[in-house]
Amino acid sequence: MEQKKNFKIVSNKKTRVILPNMFTLIGVCIGLSSIKFAFDGNFTLSVIAIIVAAIIDGLDGRIARLIQGTSKVGKELDSLTDVISFGVAPAFIMYFWKLNELGRVGWLICLIYVICVALRLARFNVNSGQEPSWRDNFFEGVPSPSGGVIVLMPLIYSLSDIQIFNLNYDLLVPILFVVVSILLISKVPTYALKKISVPRNMTIFLLLGVVLYFGLLLIYTFNAIVISGLIYFIMIPISYIHFNNLNKKFKDQDFSNEEHEDIL
């Protein structure tokens, strides 16, 4: 009797690693291309390239976990990609757009920002090997993809149709760079959104919301990004308060367990 063969789309570990790493390398190519677009004065394409790189950065890790293709090489490659796409590229884009008017000070601000991105990713790699806990739902400081998009916000705002305020970009851009640099290396807890538990009956609404958001990104690209950035800024103090409440709750539980522990 002929035996049935079990066919698999991806047969072994080495093959499964290739797909997420390909996504990561595509992301770094797009991030580097954004610098070229900015150098040519095409800031619209440069911003879009960074947004696409951020989307790819959010997908490659999830794809790797989904197909069980995670690897140490992929982890380090992802961090190096983040330094380029969300550290070096946004710094160059904003330097070509506005910071070059500040001369040496503008270049110094760019250097400080890129260094903070590198330090933030180095700390993340060191801390990511710890045992799973409720703290995994929070990042220490602002993640580099979010930081890369936030420093582009003045440029994105200028490209959007939301012209409510007359902003002084000469003052706003360097201040925003410094603030984001501090947030990157700080220990301010921000939502990681890694472990979202969605009830089965709410899955259809989640999918509808995701499709609606990406539809808005396609139709009202810069307007949607500006509003998303404002929401993210509002979420930072909320995540800080939420983290402290959870931290106090778990500390109280640990203290209560220690009180009832038998000492021989």
Short description:
The protein has 264 residues and is an all-alpha fold.
Defining key terms:
Four Helix Bundle (Hemerythrin (Met), subunit A), 9 helices, mainly alpha, about 70% helix, disordered C terminus, two-stranded antiparallel sheet, about 260 residues
Q: Would you write up a description of this structure?
A:
This protein has about 260 residues and is mainly alpha-helical. It has one domain: Up-down Bundle (Four Helix Bundle (Hemerythrin (Met), subunit A)). About 70% of the residues lie in helices and about 0% in strands. The chain has nine helices and two strands. The chain has a two-stranded antiparallel sheet. Helix 1 (about 15-40) packs parallel to helix 3 (about 70-95) and helix 2 (about 45-65) runs antiparallel to helix 5 (about 145-150). The chain is globular and about 50 Å long. The relative contact order is 0.10. The model is unreliable at about 260-264 (pLDDT under 50).
Estimated structural class:
mainly alpha
Strand order of the largest sheet: 1-2
CATH class identity: Mainly Alpha
What's the story with the biggest beta sheet?
Answer: 2 strands, antiparallel
| CATH-defined fold name | Four Helix Bundle (Hemerythrin (Met), subunit A)
What form results from the Cα inertia axes? globular
What is the residue-mean pLDDT, rounded to a whole number? Answer: 83
Strand content: under 5%
Number of strands: 2
Number of helices: 9
Strand and helix layout:
Blueprint: H1 13-39, H2 43-66, H3 72-97, H4 104-127, E1 138-140, H5 144-150, H6 153-159, H7 169-185, E2 189-191, H8 203-219, H9 221-259
